[in-house]
Fold this sequence. Notes:
The complex is a heterotrimer.
Chain A: H1 3-10, H2 16-23, E1 27-31, H3 38-43, E2 46-50, H4 60-66, H5 72-82, E3 91-95, H6 99-111, E4 117-120, H7 128-149, H8 155-179, H9 188-198, H10 203-219, E5 228-234, H11 240-248, E6 251-257, H12 262-265, H13 275-285, H14 296-309, E7 314-320, H15 324-339, E8 344-349, H16 356-371
Parallel strand pairs in A: 1-2, 1-3, 3-4, 5-6, 5-7, 7-8
Chain B: H1 7-13, H2 22-40, H3 48-65, E1 69-72, H4 79-83, E2 87-90, H5 105-114, H6 127-134, E3 143-147, H7 152-165, E4 169-172, H8 190-209, H9 215-238, H10 253-261, H11 265-284, E5 294-298, H12 309-317, E6 319-324, H13 339-351, H14 356-359, H15 363-376, E7 381-387, H16 391-408, E8 412-417, H17 427-442
Parallel strand pairs in B: 1-2, 1-3, 3-4, 5-6, 5-7, 7-8
Helix pairs in contact in B: 2-3, 3-10, 5-6, 6-7, 8-13, 9-11, 9-13, 10-11, 15-16
Chain C: E1 2-8, E2 12-19, E3 22-30, H1 35-50, E4 59-63, E5 75-76, H2 79-90, E6 96-100, E7 105-110, E8 116-122, H3 130-140, H4 144-151, H5 165-177, H6 182-204, E9 210-213, H7 220-230, H8 244-258
Parallel strand pairs in C: 1-4, 4-5, 6-9
Antiparallel strand pairs in C: 1-2, 2-3, 6-7, 7-8
Amino acid sequence: MSISETFRQALSLPNPWIREAKEEGKKALGYFCSYIPEEIMTAAGLLPVRMRAPGCTDTPMGDAYMSPTTCGFTRCVLETASEGGYEFLDGVVASNTCDQVRRLYDNIRFKTPFPYHYFLSLPHTQSPTTLEWFAHELVKFKEDLEEHFQVEIGREKLQEAIKAHNHSRALFERLYDLRKREAPVLSGSEVLRFFLGSVTLPVQTFNAWFQKEIEELEAGEGLSKYRARIMLLGSHLDDPRFIELIEGQGGLVVTDSLCFGNRFFRDPVDETAEPISALAERYLYKIPCPRMSGAQAERIRFVMDQIRDFHVDGVIIQRMKFCPMWWGDAFVLRDELKKAGIPCLELEREYLVSGAGAIKTRVQAFLETLEGR
Amino acid sequence: MTEDKFSPYEAMAAEEWPSDLGLWKNLLLGFIANSRLNLAAGIPETPMGELLVKMFARIAKARLEGKPIIMHPFNYGPELFYAMDLEPLMQEVFSVGLAPFHLNEPYIDLANQMGYGDNPTLCNAQRPLIATHLSGDAPKVDLLFYLSAPCNSLATTYQVYQHITGVPTFTMDIPYWSHDPSSPFYDEKTLEYMKAQYRDCIAWLEHQTHRAFDPEKFQMTMRRVNEARENIMEFNDLLKTVPCPVNSMESFSNYLTMVLSGGTQEAVEVTRWFRDYAADHARKGIAGVPGEKLRIAWPYTHTFFDRDLFPWLEQQFQAVVIMDILGFYNIPPHDVSTLEKCFDSLALGTLDFSMIHTCRGPAEFYIEYLLRFIEDYRIDCVIIPMQFACKHAYAVTKIAAEAVRREADIPVLIFGCDPYDSREVPSEEIRGKIEEFITEIVL
Amino acid sequence: MIVAGCDVGSLTGKVVILRDGEILGSGIVPTTTKPERTARNALDKALEQCGLALEDIECLVGTGYGRVKIPFAHDNVSEISCHGRGAHFLVPSIRLIIDIGGQDCKVIRVNAKGKLVDFAMNDKCAAGTGRFLETMARALELKLEEMGPLSLQSKAPTAITAQCSVFAETEVVSRLAEGAEVEDLVAGIHDAVASRIMTLIKRVGIEEDITVTGGVAKNVGVVHFLEKRVGLKAKPLPMDPQLVGALGAALTAENLMKTGKA
């Protein structure tokens, strides 16, 4: 089986590797946000699995408990939980990423409990004061995992985990460099599959395959047949089919600001410093998502830098329906892009792909405007 | 022109004001007119009319004289700002203040036209801020202060405002955990974290205003807040009386007083007035709603656009709404004997403020609060208007309703609406639902 | 050089045949269940009109809802671009095309060359589309064709404030019961449609000249209230607006031939 085919397999939940890990007696922990350090879970000997709800088509329970005007992701997760779709997980970890995840966690505890729950109160602002609180929350998390799973998470284990996850980050960085080329080595939808693999497979397994995959790609020809180079940004996106809709029209996604993307891997953790402090520092100050207050200017700067470095022709902002934070960000960004003369398309979407026709038409028309210039 | 206590403010408004105070002037005059109308109609007067008019006038005066104006959200008490001689402006004047007169609706439409969110993605409590600012109808402010709680909609809109105006801003991160050692969600560092952020905030204020923090003034301010809180706690206790000595709108007053004037002598006097008023009624056995038959808990905001809804409830069903999530200000007095203790009080007051207290953390904060209230205040039924755009509230109501039915065994009504926009779900429909609920289920 | 454009929409299929910028023939047919068949029917009709055969067509571009299913098309382009290009060809001063359909509404901005520059569309909500007018006509027990002319008779349009067409219907019925004049209500309804479309227009920016196309373009009321809001008079197109998309597709085909991309 080719590695790409392997990664396709990895997308289902649970996948063969999760099952294998569990058969070996390993425990799997579901978690919700790129602000939650995987390293702590890996160091605890657990398998961190980013929460997704693939294949969820209908959400009667989600609608009833979360409300019909809550984002589709949280409704689909609650639905899947209520149907026993997460039986392979030994627990779930959430944070105050956003109100919707916060309430999802409540509904899970009340209606579809897991054997273990944990919540992290992570700061919405960046300062020495909030950094201290972030570290405090991480220590508590570590201690709670130690108590519940009867493990010891010492300094060495943390440093090992940091190294392993840093290695993934370095590989992603290498991959992204290869996307700067005039013929980028990989499409955006394929890259997303790699990200999904990295948050579903045991980190060492992932690193080994990913390394090989990149070596092959480096030598390859890359993709030269495309109409425009696109930067994609926006809400939680774990459905490669959405990116396929864009790329099927000829808009090749070469870079992004996505939590399964740049905002996931950029900026490694300092391997020389005390592990908890290093983790707090890296996670608090990584490329901010709209939940971070006062970081608007930094988010805009990041977008502009990416446009320059990846020779981007146009930006697509995708917003999950009912996501307040990305609407606010899009409002500001669309203006800034207009001022800088960078074409921008906004797409509203559901958690899992629907209304493909309408999306394709808009993307096609957008690409046509790029060609008219 | 009428000569009464409002005349000086009217005279102020007769002068020329800068263009960004255009809407503000209309509001000042509107609230004066409203108070006079109420007086003429024989509606018994409370200090609220004057408090509101004074608030508009004070802010206009600050703008005209160059006193720094600091904008803040509607679930935050302005005591620190008064202590630092700044003029606080509660942002939700543009939504909560305008909705009863439907004056906010053109701004909602304008926000839609500008492409700033829609209902139900972003809350109409804050969207008019963007619309009024971009159309030049909001007073210029010098500083902005907001919290990460209770919700993303608030934080998002303030963040956007910060970006488009460039106004210097301080955001306080509100933690998820409790400061109460008896709570299962207790974190012993919660209070320290808040105080540390307050140290940062004060340093920022000093830097922005070129003024030093005055510990004496601060302590005096916190003592006044404390005095007001003592009055309010007595008032809240009196609400437990059957029949309730005040009516539905009167039980909202203390929140309004504290969010607009908390820390001032005015707040002490107004809260004292309401305490005395309630005590007087309780002593004489006078009911706020004559023939009180129903005691209602309303654990969300008023449907602000329908200012006659509670009077209607009172007339139709002799029902009194004893609590709503914003109106029920329930912060106990603290030990404010030292400067350090005053800082504790400041931090605790922030965490326990209306809506922050119930909505910033786990569902239990909301549910326990509601269950306790139902028991202490002898509530007969619960009505929850569900704001379509309110993510944190809408997603907790069902489990809350289940808990109420299970533990308190009283009926719960939940209906969808937009408390700020009369056009989404009109009054008639809301009243229809409530009528059906009360007549068929409750009575 | 003979080229053709084929626009397969949800209600009709249209073809325009062009030779060196001159329209030789056209055809409009009702949509069938299969886009290929619709396209073929429309093409046959157009070919018959000018006495040509499929082999005479050197390049054919497809557009519209069924564009990817046209077997004899050399390429496909969004109906947004085609609409813009077609309208611009007919009246070269045109820069903004407001296309109000039965189910959706698009605002299209083109440059001096007729190339698509920006666009905004609403295909999720009835407000600002023909569907809104249909619903209202039913609620008021009027014929759809009567609505436009009736709206112009009002001296004082009743403002319809409800955002959503579902609530607007309730609002209109209650106003009627309260004794509001029908023409005032109908005028208010048309202004509400115009207001919704203005939101889209604002996103794209106003630039003259403007034109209004689509099924609802025939409604004099909507055009009137829209012109009032935009502050410009809409230029009429000298061709059945239904064919504009297919014309634009044909022009795209011509361009492909000229630039050697076909």
